[in-house]
Amino acid sequence: MPSVVDVAGMNRISRAIYANAAGAIAGMVRNRGAAQAATGDERPLLTASMFGNTTTAVEHARGILEAAGYEVLVFHATGSGDAPWKA
Q: Which parts of the sequence belong to the UPF0261 domain (predicted)?
C-alpha cells in the first residue's frame, strides 16, 4: 500500500493510510482459511520471474512443471524491486 506521504511522523493523511493498511491486513488474516478453501487446489506452488527475452524459456519450463503436477506463478521482473544496482 503506497504511503502517499513520507514516513516522517504521523499526520491526518498518514493516519488514514495506516488505518486502511491495518484494516486490509486484518481482513486478509481473518479471511485466510476461506480464501485457501475457495481455491481447492492442493498442487505445490513454484514461482518464476521473467523478462521479455526469457518469455519463451519460462513458458516452456512452466509447461513441463505443470505437467509434473506443480502450479507455476509467473511474475515479470520489473517494477519496484527491479535492478537496485541501477539507482
A: 1-32, 43-82
